[in-house]
Amino acid sequence: DIQMTQSPSSLSASVGDRVTITCRASQSISSYLNWYQQKPGKAPKLLIYGASNLQSGVPSRFSGSGSGTDFTLTISSLQPEDFATYYCQQSYSTPTWTFGQGTKVESK
Amino acid sequence: QVQLQESGPGLVKPSQTLSLTCTVSGGSIGSGSYHWSWIRQPAGKGLEWIGRIFTTENTNYNPSLKSRVTMSVDTSKNQFSLKVSSVTAADTAVYYCARGDTTMSYYYMDVWGKGTTVTVSS
After folding, report:
1. pLDDT at B38 over 80
2. Spatial separation of the C-alpha atoms in residues B50 and B66, rounded to whole Å
């Protein structure tokens, strides 16, 4: 199985901060990497697909980059509604799509 | 706008079979080239992809669950379903259904149900 490791597991930030979350795959997954946002008690929401493609309706302050094994999700200017947990997910290896363990973005 | 809604028993006894249904509204389950997934999340933990089904009834299952999982689709009812047999407390989780799509060969899950909590307990 392809293991996905996110760092950090949690971070504290303030509104307006630039936030970066990293996801590393245990083997190359090309650009088959998606990012999701999940708020407490809610379903995950797709933010980025194919490593860098912004899902329709997602604010442009979210961006993704990377290929191979190392990927990054960046929030250019953190907004109050962005406090949430973020997950990466690889869709390279079917039938085992795997998620990272999540990164919780908390208010400083 | 497509919406998904999970339904099924919230409590299942150990060793029994967990059965859930996802109803698709606002669009036809058979339209486009979508696939339909199940994902679960134990309380306070991360997400685990269980598997997916196409309207052709082709399936892909997570190998860690494959021996206990069965998915089916009913296009006449605009529904797809999940069965997990021989459940234990480790199967206690929030279960989500989701629509999968593909763009430029990239697979992703873009529409999710709200989730339903299933507890395995006697």
Report:
1. yes
2. 8
